[in-house]
Amino acid sequence: MHTPSTEARPSIYYPYEVFQPWLASAHPEQERKKVVIVGAGPAGMVTALELARHGVPCVVLAAELQLSQGSRAICFTRRSMEILQQVGVAERLSAIGLPWRFGNSFYRGQRVFRMEAPHDSDDRFFPITNVQQQFMEEYLHDACEANPLIDFRWGNKVTRVDQQDGHAVLEVDTPEGPYALESDWVVAADGGRSGIRSAMNLQMEGASYEGFFVIADIRIDLPHPTERLAFFDPEWNPGNTILMHREPLGIWRVDYQLPPGETPEEALRPESLKARIDAQLAMIGHAGTPWEMDWSSVYSARTLTLPEFVHGRVIFTGDAAHLLPIFGVRGANTAFQDAQSLGWHLAFVVKGLAGQTLLANHSAERVGAAREIIAESGKSTRFMAPPSRGFRLLRDAVLSLSLTQAFVRPLYHWRASRPHEYSHSMLNSPRDDNALFQAGPAHGAPPQNVRLDDDDHLLDHLGGGFDLLYFTHASALPEDVQSAVQAARARGTPLKVTAVGAAQPVAGADRTLPDAQGRLRERYGVPASDSLHPQAHGAAYLLRPDQHICARWLALDAAGLQAALAQALPR
Amino acid sequence: MTAPALTIDGLETVYDALATALDQAGPGKTELFLVKLALLQANALADPELFQQQIASALQDL
Asked: What ipTM is given for this predicted complex?
């Protein structure tokens, strides 16, 4: 019998709600489900919301009766906010979140590097938004509860997954005992310590680093702006690294590396936490400022991934699929991209709009992303927490040189999470005009947002299916293109057409964006239409349901669109 | 192409200067000093492949 705690988790800023468990005895007998998602963290809930958006119902199983403990992930990238906008929670997150774009690295009391993350005037969201994970989970949970296609079950812990021919049977334990649940597909979003991954005996590839970090949230009034602070080799913690971030509601995150040999249990003793946080506050000139502890934990850096995310009827996503170091905010930010990708790939397979090859593509794209992230974050990790004597000597030499030598300072740069470009995806159209464009997002790239007006951006209008951006001054889409769009829709493919560049609504388009200043055209590398470039009329971009580009043309025709859709939805 | 090389005089100057600097850095800071110097030299060399060759040469006969 599964007995999750009914006592609200402690927090000095977040009021935990304890939910009622879902009990099989209170519900009629269940048919086989299309999708069961194990885990109600960011990856699980975004997958559920994306599936529902594509019309696929799912069950979400949460082992506990409340949201997760502590602030956990706090830094959300622009692309994460764009994905959260797609599932309808970005507005609430923006209302509470703290946007920022600057980072500072300090050594021997001197600021040796200042990172300025670019903020494009066409972007809606800042490079990073800080907000505690509980709020993000709360808003995602609210969105799940409001969606009739999502069956959210608190207090349901998966204890066994049996794969059978073409489906899986889950044993789900609850406060009244276990029940069996059949599903065509199981999404394992059960986190870094994934019980499903262990039970299936799947090995991850990559490296684990030895150093431990304490992660602590304190409430304190500090006059510093929302910028990342990194301190290297300070006197109170020689050889080690400290990070600080401002969070909403007067909370600060303090991360510090432990000396070699110290155990997590020793480090989390209250007197040990207090001495170190006091020392850090003294170093930044705030000795004696009162503070209160909210939550603390210990982590070590790992760069590990499963080499394949799809295993029969079980698909791994988020931390269950890979473990990434926090340097560069890789965990939740990668999970959002995984979940958004999985949502549409799986939905299209469930709906019969594509074959299982599409899931193989999901795995290939996201494993590729994980490996790219591992290569990049390995560099950051080796600088932040040197894994050997040689790496430590080099890091220390760079710290010392950085006081006077500018050429080493870029090594402080924080390689933050960024969206993977699926440049070689099998979904990219092989016979479009991708190579002929001089600018704009290329094959596999994430979308470029464009500011259309006050509080009105291109990405506000996209998503939920394929999007065709069609650049034209004409009053109507060409008839053959209209026919191709209608034929695709008749086969069940969700496809929205946005005409760009005409002052009046364009017949055959779902929506027309006038783009009077030509900003959108420019950002998408579409040449201005004039007597020298008549071909600019009829340029087009095809965006996948995750808004990544899969085809673009200087002049679209029906055959090109049909070929691109067939390529993107392999049978 | 002939690689630029030190004259005998130049080599003797470098020899004395490096020895003096090692003594000045002291036993506790010798490694740090040498790694800093190597990074400065690598930057001046501006050729990662040539630097890798020099690493290989220096690793010989330790």
From this structure: 0.94
